[in-house]
Model the fold of this input.
Amino acid sequence: MELIEAIILAVLAASTPLLIAATGELVTERSGVLNLGVEGMMIVGAACGFAGAWLTGSILVGAFFGIVAGTLMSLVFALMALGLAVNQVATGLALTILGIGLSGLIGAGFVGERITPAVHLYIPGLTDIPLIGRVLFGEDGFVYFSVALIVGVWWFLYRTRAGLILRACGDNHVSAHALGYPVLRIRTFAVMFGGACAGLAGAYLPLAYTPFFIPGMTAGRGWIALALVVFASWRPGRLVIGAYLFGAVTILQLHAQGWGVGIPSQFMSALPYLATVIVLVLLSRARTGGSTAPAALGTVFVPDR
Amino acid sequence: MRKSLLALTAGLLLAGSVSAASAADKLKVGFIYLGPVGDLGWTYQHEQGRLALVKELGDKIETTTLENVPEGPDAERAIEQLVRAGNKLIFTTSFGYMDPTLKVAKKYPNVHFEHATGYKRDKNMSTYSAKWYQGRYIQGLIAAKMSKSGVLGYIGSFPIPEVVSGINATMLAAQTINPNIKVKIIWANTWFDPGKEADAAKALIDQGADVIMQHTDSPAAMQIASERGKLAFGQDSEMIKFGPKTQLTSILDTWGPYYIERVKAELAGTWKSEDTWGGLDSHMFAMAPYTNMPDDVKKMAEDAQAAITAGKLHPFKCPVIGQDGKEVECKGGANLADGQILGMNFYVKGIDDKLPGK
Done:
């Protein structure tokens, strides 16, 4: 019983940064922009988030620093890929490399320092319920926020006019432009939202997950977030399932090893990526009406004047 | 599809920054690092060694470092880059650089190479490593004394001989205190991923382990153990800051003296290919102060350290019984031969787990 609760708690903690970063990237890609710089924006968010929390002693300020840092990084991307119409793939990769270097520089002074991690919710009575108490009422703020975020994004994309317009930009920017929508401005906002989410997801790592900063601590989570968006076939609902599934496999493979289950750990580590590949294959085989990738994803748009 | 391919390429592109200062006719010494120098573990300790070297011989040499160089074929390019930059002595500081180093060494016979923790050598390629299993043995004694649940948690990186011999030494020591001691082993399949190391520590503690040992590089596991009120051992460097009431001791890599010795030999023109495998007696590594334990346990640890240093105690004293219950052939007289330890690919009796790939 306690073990099950502990596993669920660990899964939620492992999934949260993936969910936040992937939510941001989903919105970016839905507007037709492919930003491969998630890892770079995340790691800068981690460095700045830690710096903010360490300097002020406040996790909230740290999270804010992370969001601002991620947004600034994404503006660099927007300037290049949208403003100057540079190839998005190359710009995104460059952003990651820039981010890794920059975070090392920003974080150099903070290596070896530690902070008090984000507090967990505690409601007397509710949090003490066995099995579900701590899972539902004992998480840190980031976990609750990530759930609110994805619900909000779903509502925005499918239930608001602005969301419809954003999706239109992603599917056919020429038509959206012809209808008089400011495609580049909309895409810039979408990229900034993606950057803010990536920055927050990065900040989650030193603020709540492992409360210290070490260069390279995102360890590829930004790439996983990118894969998750594809895994989810650009749909918020599937993204939630994907993120928690990914977290669950990560944690369960560790437990399976502890129990001595005879499946090679290397295979278990690779499982989530395998799942992504399989989903990709299934998606390309079975085009059952609904849209998969936004039609204009990754294509450069220069409005004719 | 295209995306994941690109992700891969990007990962390979991340080989880090070059830092160098130019000066005429000084000996150029290069270092290849696996992680960032700020990892507080493996790479950090090599950087400390380099700094000690610069402090000692800074007026005669010039050092260059390459950080974040991935293991495998990509490392070859990085090593060659150092050669082309004029480095005459190059230290490649991780096991996975073994074949790339050898390849480059064959190509440039006039450049000297030093590869850490490997076993392949050439006329111009030395290897150097430390007998960390001696330290692991001491940790095993302490762990068995301090564990209340009788279950130790061990976070491994990759199932290579160095890590396997560490697990075996730990268990052989622990069994002398508590014959029924259990160990739970989780392979992280990475040297450095703080999040994953923390997750592994959580899983081990949730499954009943109360002393955590790690063979990965970040202080994440130490911090989780500290959070949960358990005990843990540091790795590579002093990690007591991350668990003031948690760290029992830590194996500290001290590369400085070796780097100074080898560079001095290079300067004097007496460098030759060697295989250095130093133990507690040679200062290749040291034990951090024994903390958070009663005095009798501390004394036991110190006595064991003294006995190992003096050569009176060998962790792999024959007979060593393998997992299958059969005695391991004793090729080194009274103890297992060095080669058997360097190539260790079996678990000793008392480990319930199955060694990956066996």
